[in-house]
Write the structure tokens for this entry.
Amino acid sequence: MKKILSVKNLSVSFETYKAEVKAVRDVSFDLHEKETLAIVGESGSGKSVTAQSVMRLVPMPPGKFVGGSIIFDGEELIDKSEKQMESIRGKEIGMIFQDPMTSLNPTMTIGKQIAEGLIKHQNMSKKDAHARGIELLKQVGIPNPEKRINQYPHEFSGGMRQRAMIAIALACNPKILIADEPTTALDVTIQAQILDLMKQLQEETGTAIILITHDLGVVANSAHRVAVMYGGKIVETGSVEEIFYNPKHPYTWGLLGSMPKLDQHDEKLKAIPGSPPDLADPPKGCPFAARCPFAMKVCGEHMPEHYELSDTQKTACWLLHEGAPKVEPPEFVNVGGSKVNG
Amino acid sequence: MAKYLLKRIAYIFLSLFLIITVTFFLMQIAPGSPFASERKMTPALEKQMEEAYGLNDPIHEQYLDYLVNALTFDFGPSFKYVGQDVMDIILRGFPYSLVLGLEALFIATGFGILFGVFAALKHNKFGDYAAMVIAVLGISVPSFIMATILQYIFAIKLNMFSVARMESFADTILPALALATTPLAFIARLMRSSMLDVLNSDYIKTAKSKGMSQRIVTYKHGLRNALLPVISYMGPLVASILTGSFVIEKIFGIPGLGSEFVTSITNRDYTVIMGTTVFFSVILLFCVLLVDIIYGIVDPRIKLDAKGGEK
């Protein structure tokens, strides 16, 4: 499959009064056509900033690119002017956001919000854009689209709004869809519907998806590949099978272990003790070292390199060094089991 | 919509009835009489005067008379100026206040919104700080100081306008500026903060992610939403500005409604006090209604229907 997006050694920082917060540090990943890449991590791990950097939507200042490159379709996005980016956003890369209640303009009809992009990127007339809008709403499963298109966001329910957001993002058939926690703010029943919809639309249109989430259940259901982020870095990447059945990074173990399981009734929920590192003053070594039950002396001092375990799986952990003790994932991780529940 | 309007107008009449009633009885409770002045009148003369103006009738009769007459905008004769009706006084002063007020309103909203948007777009840069320092000055400097400064600079030093005259359009510029300063500064601050709020909202990010240019994002998606708080401030502002400012009218020698109102109080000219109060209320109530209607047009989330209205 063709590579359409390649992020190499991307570092993004934010200038604050106190210090420079290094939100994304040396992140690299590729995205292929028709593939769904999930970026998983807890709050503050840098996953949203990574995604918004691809769209160049990180406000600058206070944000700034410290280094790295983002190659889309053979072109460097970091060097593009704001004007050039405008013809990429919406047209080549679409984006949907976490909270559908606030991400639609309350004083503009859904139809106009869909039409805007079509008129700008595809030079459609207002009439054609309106017709295409109805088609799109039908495609994302909104009943009665002829009537719905002239309504305002407040007349839509949460799930319907997220469907409308997807229609907006996919209006111009973008090559990449970035979904920034698209189901976090929705009811569980609606979550599944939205994920199914995204999967179905991906099959129809062939869009590659970057799915940002902290919910491993979502990942198991819809991603092909997974990148686990922690402390602004990608600590492990692999195919979804590798991450769920053969995880190698203790943080991934922790994430899998902290998923509640159906067959355990009397136990407390598992958590990873401690809190994520302060990215204004990130640790020298592995960002997870302070919370890692298997941490060695070297972990706090030096960042481990990415060990290639297969063509797809890469893990940044000193435990994989030949001199390190052999550690098995703890029992509670229940490797692979979470896929059943997810 | 028609049902909604009817209902609102009914409410306006109810409010007016309450306002008239309360002012009427407050006037009755207030000590002193319009004829109590330094120069003592003979009791016989005073009695005759009270008889002539119907002040000896039982209170409920006076009140009912007043209510009925008020319906036809007849607020009775002035106690102070013989032969003048309250309505004559209001209609004499109001045109001046209206012209001045409209001008000031135009300046205040136009420049207020402009400065506010400008400051928000230059957030935390020099332009923002400069605009906001001016706004704070505008709010904190009282209008009478502003008025005298304007007179000193533009009328006396630069000789561009007359100090205090009310003949041509040029004469209205200085007082309108002085009148506009405070609301202008207030609107600028209001506009800035609501624009900043809106520009940080998710739907602005959505608009950007669609590839809309900064200009379209700011004006098409941002401005309309950011205007809402300003619109709700406009109702009382329009009413108070249209009915004139005593201070500004005194300083610039304008025979407007504001000075009539204050003079009537010092004169204990009861009918004029009540007449102007009711007049002010009518304007305020209709301005508020107008604002609600505009609000409903700008913000589709607000439904104008008979079922109790907003939200």
In short: The interface with chain B takes residues 55, 57, 82-83, 85-91, 94-95, 97, 99, 102-108, 113, 116-117, 120-121, 152, 154, 165, 168-169 of chain A (CB under 8 Å). Confidence is low (pLDDT under 50) at residues 338-342 of chain A.
